[in-house]
Write a structure and sequence with these properties.
Blueprint: E1 9-12, H1 17-28, E2 34-35, H2 47-56, E3 61-64, H3 72-77, H4 79-99, E4 104-108, H5 137-157, E5 160-166, E6 168-170, H6 183-196, E7 201-205, E8 211-216, H7 217-229, H8 232-238, E9 245-248, E10 253-255, H9 256-267, E11 272-276, E12 285-286, H10 291-295, H11 304-317, H12 319-322
Parallel strand pairs: 1-2, 1-3, 3-4, 4-5, 5-9, 6-8, 7-11, 8-12
Antiparallel strand pairs: 8-10
Helix pairs in contact: 1-7, 2-4, 4-5, 6-9, 6-11, 9-11
Length: about 325
């Protein structure tokens, strides 16, 4: 644990699921100078505003958790928004961090950066070795650009900008929108509402066969801080100049059907699960090879059943917020 817990640390995207978890974890560890800014206070799409923010504050570290995110439906419907906004956000923040002489930054990517047919489990070396999944290609390309931005500032200017690639995340402050959310919050809401209506069945997109890996957001936050605190030489030895990102996950996956059945049990729904095979499945399997991170001393600690119980309890306690 570092001694200077009062150094200014900026968490970009603190109102999102991951950013909020990072703030909670930093606070729990005793960090006393955590900088945040809401969208009304700082528009991350405004380059001048972001530069001014970094000029105003003497920031020591940045956690770049801000992003435009969504599930298959959202990515299919708004591809231009996803590539444009994510490119602008990461470009503005990484460049402003450099201009503000911030030496340490952590960029949060996504496991969708890997090719659709990548060998499973997916190693960091699979990046740029094949075509991406078409349903989220624009978002994935933006995230790949973020990784390469960090690597490029490291190579050209000697910065210590690191990247982590999380698997599918879920937990408190997730997006529970009925159409634009990821699979876990979408299923929590759908199955809960079916229970409330005493429905005989609930319909789930796709065949239920795709395999997915799920990581609780509190584990993700802990992993982010662990990676950020690694000695620069240790991090460099575990990575490569042109392959500097690190996978973050559990190393264990399950089918969408198994996920839905677990949620059915957690929520207490008595009806049937019906799978709509006319809807897209997306990538057949997405499992990360997390051996690099485990070699650096970190492993996930929250099991799927426990994590889903936590996520559902948060949904129940924050339903008005979660439904927006």
């Amino acid at each position: 644990m570092p001694e200077n817990l009062d150094r200014p640390v900026f968490v970009a995207g603190h109102r999102g699921m991951v950013g909020a978890a990072i703030v909670r974890r930093l606070q729990a560890l005793g960090y006393s100078n955590i900088l945040t800014a809401s969208r009304s206070e700082l528009d991350l799409l405004d380059q001048r505003a972001v530069l001014d923010f970094f000029e105003t504050y003497e920031i020591a570290e940045v956690y770049l958790a801000a992003a435009k995110v969504g599930g298959i439906h959202a990515n299919n419907t708004f591809p231009a928004d996803f590539i444009h906004e994510n490119l602008v956000i990461e470009t503005n923040l990484i460049h402003a961090a450099h201009q503000g002489n911030v030496q340490k930054l952590l960029f949060l990517g996504s496991s969708c950066i890997y090719p659709k047919q990548a060998e499973q489990p997916m190693r960091e070396s699979a990046l740029l070795t094949g075509p991406l999944e078409p349903t989220n290609e624009p978002y994935a390309l933006a995230k790949i650009a973020g990784i390469k931005l960090c690597e490029s500032f490291n190579r050209q200017y000697g910065r210590d900008y690191r990247s982590v690639m999380p698997t599918n995340l879920y937990g408190p402050f997730d997006n529970f929108h009925p159409e634009n959310s990821h699979v876990v919050p979408a299923l929590i809401r759908r199955i809960h509402e079916a229970k409330q209506l005493e429905s005989e069945q609930v319909t789930i997109w796709g065949s239920g066969k795709p395999m997915r890996e799920f990581l609780h957001v509190d584990d993700m936050a802990d992993a982010c801080i662990h990676v950020m605190q690694l000695d620069q030489e240790v991090y460099a030895e575990a990575t490569e100049p042109m392959l500097s990102h690190i996978n973050v996950g559990t190393g264990v996956d399950c089918s969408i059907r198994e996920l839905a059945e677990t949620l059915k049990e957690v929520i207490g729904f008595q009806g049937a699960l019906v799978f709509d095979t006319s809807k897209p499945d997306g990538t057949p399997r997405k499992l990360l090879d997390v051996s690099r991170l485990e070699g650096l001393g970190w492993r996930a600690g929250i099991g799927l059943h426990e994590g889903l119980q936590n996520a559902y309890q948060w949904y129940l306690e924050n339903m008005d917020h979660a439904r927006q």
